[in-house]
Predict the structure.
Amino acid sequence: MKFNAPLVLALAGVALAKGNSTNSQCKEVAKLTRLNDIVANTTLLNEYTDNNATKAAELEAKAAAGNTTLATLSSNTTLMTTCYQIFAVEDMEDDCDEMDAIQQANVVAANATLLAKYTKNNATKAAEFQAKVSAKAATLDALQSNTTLTAFCSTLNDKSSCKSMAKLIKQQDLVANTTALNDKFNGNATKVANYQAKVSAKAAKLATLMSNTTLLSTCEGLGITTAADVAQAAAIATTTASAKSAAVVVSPMAGAKVIALVSGLVYAIAML
Ligand SMILES: *[C@@H]1O[C@H](CO)[C@@H](O)[C@H](O)[C@H]1NC(C)=O
Ligand SMILES: *[C@@H]1O[C@H](CO)[C@@H](O)[C@H](O)[C@H]1NC(C)=O
Ligand SMILES: *[C@@H]1O[C@H](CO)[C@@H](O)[C@H](O)[C@H]1NC(C)=O
Ligand SMILES: *[C@@H]1O[C@H](CO)[C@@H](O)[C@H](O)[C@H]1NC(C)=O
Ligand SMILES: *[C@@H]1O[C@H](CO)[C@@H](O)[C@H](O)[C@H]1NC(C)=O
Ligand SMILES: *[C@@H]1O[C@H](CO)[C@@H](O)[C@H](O)[C@H]1NC(C)=O
Ligand SMILES: *[C@@H]1O[C@H](CO)[C@@H](O)[C@H](O)[C@H]1NC(C)=O
Ligand SMILES: *[C@@H]1O[C@H](CO)[C@@H](O)[C@H](O)[C@H]1NC(C)=O
Ligand SMILES: *[C@@H]1O[C@H](CO)[C@@H](O)[C@H](O)[C@H]1NC(C)=O
Ligand SMILES: *[C@@H]1O[C@H](CO)[C@@H](O)[C@H](O)[C@H]1NC(C)=O
Ligand SMILES: *[C@@H]1O[C@H](CO)[C@@H](O)[C@H](O)[C@H]1NC(C)=O
């Protein structure tokens, strides 16, 4: 599995910077810059203050007061180099979200069943939605034709799948460990059974993720899971019945039902 090194580095950099002072300094730079942009643009200033002159004056004072901090932070080229990297990644993440949302909206717009469902059979609303989606065609095209962006989004999606897999593996490990399970739920059989049912309902999803060797090597490359994690999870899955019955005496997993994965449709619905 080959990685686009700068992209992986950028992703890793963001993870590193989280909760550290560089990150908060970059946030401050972004906030103060935005504030300056607003006060410098009458249209924006009116929009943000609902044409309230008092509020506008307050914002202007805030921007002026923040300018010293902004100047100090901006003069640190080491800091700014990191900030620009963080901002670029954030911008690309936003673009990935937008691309995803428009794609999902297109699926709905082209599917009469889904369209009727999400517009509650309101034909006017359906037509409005389709028009909105059509109006985004050029935006989608521009995003999709940018290979830098699509490569980044693909890495981002992989990262999210890897995290999801790591979480499911951890949950499965826990379910297989009677001691840990009873510790976590203070020996409450109801809670244990509920948790087992929850984890059991996600077994198919985990199996699908773990069967994808391309994804597995990506996850290892990103340092999110190891081959040992996956091997252990696979071993647990094959002895899952005994592992579960070894837990405290619990009612059978009657409540276990496969919960449909939340699809990207939420984005599409948000556009309605
Ligand atoms: C903060 O994040 C930056 C950028 O990732 C890193 O170089 C730096 O070592 C981190 N500082 C601390 C105190 O963790
Ligand atoms: C001011 O903000 C408005 C609204 O975002 C934008 O359309 C306009 O181009 C901006 N004007 C300038 C001079 O940047
Ligand atoms: C304008 O904003 C100020 C400060 O936030 C507030 O006290 C005042 O009530 C606002 N005026 C109007 C007309 O909303
Ligand atoms: C902040 O500083 C910038 C750059 O020097 C300047 O253009 C801007 O007018 C200042 N903003 C305020 C609110 O004083
Ligand atoms: C510039 O920023 C870097 C990274 O945040 C920091 O380590 C360094 O101390 C700062 N330099 C100055 C002069 O503040
Ligand atoms: C439309 O969506 C429904 C519900 O998700 C699905 O069952 C059906 O196959 C879709 N139709 C087409 C033509 O894709
Ligand atoms: C259908 O949607 C349109 C546009 O959103 C709305 O004006 C209308 O009231 C809706 N009709 C019904 C019956 O809800
Ligand atoms: C492609 O996307 C990247 C990252 O968002 C951006 O820096 C670059 O300008 C875009 N290229 C084009 C041709 O739009
Ligand atoms: C099960 O969990 C307990 C308590 O967290 C831990 O000490 C033990 O090593 C775990 N056993 C296995 C086989 O992982
Ligand atoms: C066990 O958990 C269930 C569900 O949260 C709760 O209703 C019940 O009271 C708990 N039983 C004991 C003995 O704490
Ligand atoms: C396996 O994962 C890769 C990387 O996330 C993905 O592109 C591919 O579609 C997946 N294959 C299957 C069969 O799901």
